[in-house]
Amino acid sequence: LGYTEPYRPQYHFSPKENWMNDPSGLLYHDGTYHLFFQYNPGGIQWGNMSWGHATSSDLIHWDERPVALLARGYPDTVTEMYFTGSAVADVNNTSGFGVDGKVPLVAMYTSMYPVAQDLPSGKHVRAEQQSQSIAYSLDEGETWTTYDAENPVIHNPPSPYEDEFINFRDPFVFWHDDTQKWISVTVVAAIHKILLFSSDNLKEWSFISEFGPYNAVGGVWECANLFQMPIKGDPSTKKWVLVLGLNPGGPPGTVGSGTQYFIGDFDGTTFKADPDNIYPDNKSANWMDFGPDFYAAASYNGLPDGEVIQIAWMNNWQYGGLIPTSPWRSAMSVPRHLSLKTVNEKVTLLQQPQQSWRTVADRNPSKHSWKSISEGATSLDSPGKAFKIDLSFADHDSDDSLASTFAIAVRASSDFKQETLIGYNFTSKEVFVDRQHSGDVSFDKTFASLYHAPLSASADKRINLQVFVDWSSVEVLGGQGEVSLTAQIFPEESATQAQLVSTDGATQDVRLQITGMSSSH
Ligand code: FRU
């Protein structure tokens, strides 16, 4: 397989074939990055949920491995699906799953039981029940053994949430060094709560605390992650970050799913968001991405202390099953390196691309600069279909002679009737992605839209944008990475043109670098 079908991502992970959704178990172990993901081995629609598996030594060149956890009963009657979860290396063999000194990799996932049944563990589950289970691998994640003797290890949601047993899912496990315990973060999706559990051995779990509902509470809460990071420039202060998905209920101007975060503290029992991270009347939220296609973000376990890398599903439940790709559906975001920094007096989550994209980048980027770009279009050489843009220009206040917006059009047809615009609105002080005329937008009526994110200029009064363009996506990181906008696009194969567009006046002191990206396959 050449990975050359129309819309096939060239340097983002996508499965060779079939449906994919959430990253479900991101683990770095022994020099290998594991990416497990929600996968349907039998088609390009959601179903038969299993854990697909891919490995990489650099997070950009991926090797797709055999399915790690195949829906029980597949391809006949499926009696258990493996929903989203996480994975850890149990280096101290607290679980006892390790033999002959081998470190067991342990996955914790949601068992979704389509039908009521009595399990080998003697536990009874009801139709459509969701419970948390574990499995282990002694061969670096190639094959897995489910812990049938006791699964599910978290059978029912604790009191007073017993009624929520069909919406209790997505365990994110990590080792909490200070208390020497495993912590599992789960959601009771429909009531917008996070429930935390702790364990000594990954097998027996105690309910320890809850969080929520706060801020964005549309739809359901899903896929929570909790991790700790130092604040840049203030390394003695470490904060905890809770990231979670909403579906539907994403950022203003989007339809469908989205991702929010909270910064706060975690003492081994309770996560408490900082007071300035809780907005009155659920009127606002910290959005991790202002675009439509960034969901179920998950962070790597097994990285050095304080280092956080996340990958998200680059799709949206609003139209995920309708995007015009075949024989696969969905890709993952570019892996993002996260950090915390005080920006405009507030501790803020920053995202930067994990640096391995450079391994597929051209050595000779094209560089341009202009003292001033006048109103209208300025043509550029065709950058092709996969490239990275670094675009920087002077900010200005509203002024009759200066632009109201400045943008780069990419993946454009030669007449520019088809194009995706990525730019800045100097009046509203917002970065935007406009995919209204981006190509095939026919499969969902909400797809042809414009998305925007607030961004103030840097200290030297500039607007800095980094953009990753692939055969069917654009990812924009603004400023130091304090805003992110991720959107899929489905342009014609021949749409390879680009130009700069300054509206209503000039844009000053423009610097542009375009770096071609080759395939990682
Ligand atoms: C989020 C989600 C999870 C669930 C999984 C099922 O995208 O709905 O909550 O575990 O997908 O595939």
In short:
The chain is globular, with a radius of gyration of 23 Å.
Structure description:
- The protein is mainly β and 521 residues long.
- The model has no long low-confidence stretch (mean pLDDT 97).
- Strand 29 (420-425) and strand 30 form a beta hairpin.
- It is built from no helices and 36 strands.
- Bound molecules: beta-D-fructofuranose.
- Residues 21-22, 38, 49, 83-84, 110, 169-170, 222-223, 296 line the site of beta-D-fructofuranose.
Labels describing this entry:
521 residues; mainly beta; Tachylectin-2, Chain A; Jelly Rolls; 6-stranded antiparallel β-sheet; globular; binds beta-D-fructofuranose
Structural class, from helix and strand content? Answer: mainly beta
Write down how many β-strands occur, each being a DSSP E stretch of 2 or more residues. Answer: 36
CATH class of the largest domain: Mainly Beta
Which molecules other than protein and nucleic acid are bound?
Answer: beta-D-fructofuranose
Tell me about the biggest sheet?
6 strands, antiparallel
**CATH architecture label of the largest domain:** 5 Propeller
Give the rounded overall mean pLDDT.
Answer: 97
Strand-residue proportion? over 45%
Major sheet strand order: 25-36-27-32-33-34
Q: Total number of helical segments?
A: 0
Shape: globular
CATH homologous superfamily of the largest domain - what is it?
Glycosyl hydrolase domain, family 43
